[in-house]
Write a structure and sequence with these properties.
InterPro entries: DUF4032. This protein is mainly alpha-helical. It has one domain. It is built from five helices and no strands.
Length: 73
């Protein structure tokens, strides 16, 4: 029975459920903030600091506050 259900559901249907999930939307919002942080810090330093450095810096210094502000909205 499970097998028939799996065959009936298309890969696109599963992809659509994922793309519309709250978890994925939250990931996209967080990624946008990290990229914004990367751009700002790169501008300050006059060079591209790279995604990994921006990610680590953002997590250490900004993530908790960002999440708290989103929770309160």
């Amino acid at each position: 029975m499970e097998r028939a259900f799996a065959e009936d559901s298309s890969p696109r249907e599963g992809e659509s459920l994922f793309m519309n999930s709250a978890l994925y939307r939250e990931y996209l919002e967080e990624r946008k903030e990290i990229l914004k942080h990367k751009w700002l810090e790169s501008e300050k330093q006059g060079r591209d600091i790279g995604f990994e450095k921006a990610l680590l810096d953002w997590i250490l210094h900004h993530r908790a506050g960002w999440r708290e502000r989103r929770r309160l909205e």
